[in-house]
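Lecture notes, unit on binding sites. The following record was shown on slide 14. It pairs a sequence with iron/sulfur cluster.
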Amino acid sequence: MIHGVFSIRTAPLLQHATITDLPDRPVTIEPAGTLVYHLERGAHSDKIPTADGGGVKIGQRLFLDSPDKGYCLAAQAGRITARSNLTGTFGQQLVEISISTTEDLQEYDEEFSDACRDPSLEKASLFFRGLPGRPDFLPLTDPRQQIERLVILGVDDDVQGCSNGYLVKHHINSVLAGITLLKKITGLSESWLFVPDYLEPLLPTSSSAVRTVKAGYPEANREVIRKRICRELNIPVADDRCAFFSAEAACALSAVCSEDTRIPGKILTFVDKCGKQSLVSTPVGTPVREILQYFGETLHEGDRLVIGGPMKGTAVFSVDFPVSSTTNAIMVQDRRDIVETEDVACVNCGACVRVCPVDIQVNMLIRVLEVGEYEEAASRYNLFSCIDCGLCSYVCEARIAVFQHIRIAKTALDYA
Ligand code: SF4
Ligand code: SF4
């Protein structure tokens, strides 16, 4: 819950990339025989799965103890060839599952197919969460939340992501079909569609409740948009009653619930060491190694591989990490271009406090985070009001990895 005043007081330091700089079509990258999925084990799971060689169908849910803890959807059919335990980038306990895919096997999971033919809220929640854009129906199945409106984000929340902007520009009819389907599944009639301001002229005049988002970062952040809606409706943020879906999630829903039922590829932006951006479509589960190979990019000692954009992305230690249902960007940075963080004390310059959109006392927050006092960070310094924009790290004079400390603390408290 956000407790801060919530204001963007400084002029934007950064602007979002525009889709107009990218080609009209993404390159399609098909994995060469293996898909990889990361499943969270959860803090209290003591089950250590072993390789079993089991067959997997298209659309089959992959999970450990129970799908309630989260699941992935197999994008292609095949056979499980390996499972291993893994520690994620913020300490999450993961199990990595490798599937050897079989091109000539096009067998669909029966429960997934049934959900596609006859989607209800319950089935959508049970079977569609692993689709590209990760449509999340859980708030709609929670009676305490009393959701009244659908909010479709045709914008991308990091500065170099273009997945949703691409779909709004080139596949607006699929986005609108997905919104119609979401209304049918949820029984809600109110929907808001947020698009980059430069794409508004491309929308059909019949598109209702369209709002535009300026290019200044972090205007496209979900929490900033939530605040906008509440201000327009003159209601408290705690009473917003919104369910958020990305334009990509809406498109994926309309695709799998059509006659075709094929699971679309994940749309993402690939940024090479020279900063050149390319739009990619690839199945969820494709190892990043395959995308690097496609673009002829090689990692050398000290180079950095980032999954996500420059503000919210995470440096990963292996090219075997897979594209997930929410991977909107992959970046490779040459070691000579990396701005190193430093292990020095905060100089109390206040830049992070001035830039924080939710008025967190970041200079005080970092002091308790650095000594591992996460409970105090949450209770005294509004850790969970943070909207994950990363601006505090971006402006830090002392090059302290403030945002990384914040994410480690949030993950640790989630697991506590
Ligand atoms: S990431 Fe930093 S600047 Fe952004 S909301 Fe969180 S504390 Fe504030
Ligand atoms: S920007 Fe960095 S050095 Fe300045 S007050 Fe914030 S944490 Fe300290």
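Take-home: Residues 43-51 have pLDDT under 50 and may be disordered.
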